Each structure stands twice: as structure tokens, then as C-alpha cells.
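During the second half of the funding period, the structural biology subgroup turned its attention to how the target accommodates small molecules. The most pressing case was fructose -6-phosphate, which had performed well in the primary screen but for which no bound structure existed. We therefore specified the complex as follows and requested a full 3D prediction, including the ligand pose.
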Amino acid sequence: MEVVILPGGKPIAALAADAIEALLRRKPDAVLGLATGSSPLPVYEELAQRHERGGLDFSRVRAFTLDEYVGLPAGHPEAYREVIRREFTDRVNISPDNVRGPDGQAADIPAACRTYEDAIRDAGGVDLQLLGLGTDGHIGFNEPGSSLASRTRIKTLIEQTRRDNARFFGSLAEVPHHVLTQGLGTILEARHVILIATGAQKAQAVRDLAEGPVAAICPASVLQLHPHATVLLDEAAASSLRLADFYRHSYDGKPRWQGL
Ligand code: F6R
């Protein structure tokens, strides 16, 4: 796992966008894994600008979202399908047909989850997966206690996550209790994972993920088993790391041609 500590959201977004741009130049039909929530928004903004100003081409890209609320009506502004469309895919030239997410309205949820896993596999797997980090250590909506080998399935949100996400809804009562999420086993199969965490409220989860034991109590710690995981942090999110100076030293001395 590579931990990179940067001065703030903008340099984090630029670095993540650099990795995505390099991937698209090498593989124009790459498969991107997209997260919602606040953390990746500056990356989407940066990519939209690179598309607009520099012609960064997404025409052959395929994308899979990480998760979705169960039961929100089609077109609900907080359904992750809508959020990704509004914040990112409508702003670049990805064909809407090439963007998929778990179907939170399916009558047969287990079948919808299997279909989603099949679709990711049929696309050749995810080349680069963006992730945020829950204050409780979740990635996707794999809450503490999730199986480290899990696949796409229905999960119940922990109250802390519902409270964290209430800011996007009118009130806590409107935040669904159930979600569909790629499993930790699904996420581990992405070829490169970039997790973004900013703000002091993420500091403990960041420490648990990078320096704690690999354990279901901090689902993100499973990324320690990933062969190519990058963790991009601002100073506040990095403030509890024991090895922060070492991470800075390693990154400062890293040959730039290596990229992320
Ligand atoms: C969203 C997702 C979640 C968020 C996490 C952090 O698709 O998978 O794991 O990444 O809840 O959310 P923010 O970035 O809003 O702090």
C-alpha cells in the first residue's frame, strides 16, 4: 500500500486525475470503478475540466459504480446512479449505456447482485477503482463486520453512516437503511485502487486501514492485501498515522516516472 500525504483536496484531485488520464491514454476502453460521496468530487471536477479543455476522451470508457441505496425511486436526486450522472458522467463523453450500477429497485435483489458481478466480469474487470472511506472504516457500503471475501449484496447501514449521509438528504429519516454494495472481494479484484480521505473526521479510520490489523472491524484494512492500493490523504486525515514521516519521505524520493 502506498500512502501519499498532500497539502489538500486540489493536489489530491490532480494526482488521482493524472493516474486516470495515464490509464486512458494507455487503454482508451478502460473500466473505471466510481465512488459517490464527497471525497471523489474534486477528482470528477478535475476530469471534467481535462475533458473540456484538453479533450480527455472517455468515449470508449466503461464505468461501474460501487453501491446504491435500496428503494429510492428512479431519478431520486440522491440515488447514486443520479449522483454519478450529475457529478461526473454527464460532464464527460461517457456513453450512458456504458455506466452501470447495482439495481437498488430490483424485485429480486440476489439476482440483481449476481447480474452486477457478471457484468463487471464480462467487462474484463475494473482497471482503476476510486474509493472514499467511511468514518467507521467502510469502503463501498461494506460496514464493519463485512466478510473480507464478500461479493455484491444487500447490506444494512450502521447508524453512524446514516447520520454521516443525512447531509445529502432532507433529514435522517429519509436516509435508507439498506444498500447494495460491491463486496470487499469484488473491490479487491480491481487492478488498481485509489482511496481518497480528507479531514480530521477520517483520521482514526485512516490509521486503522493503513496501520491496524487486517480485520473486518475496519473493512478498508482489507486493502493491505491488495497488490496495488494507493491512499491519498490530506494532512488532517493523515494526522494519526504513526509512519507519516516515512510515507512523506518515500513519496518525496519516488521517481516521478513511476506515477501512482
Ligand atoms: C460511496 C461509498 C462510500 C463513501 C464513504 C465516504 O459510493 O462507497 O464508501 O465513499 O461513505 O463518503 P464521503 O466521501 O462523503 O466522506
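Two results from this model are relevant to the next phase. Residues 35-39, 66-67, 80, 132-134, 138-141 surround fructose -6-phosphate (CB under 6 Å). The chain has eight helices and ten strands.
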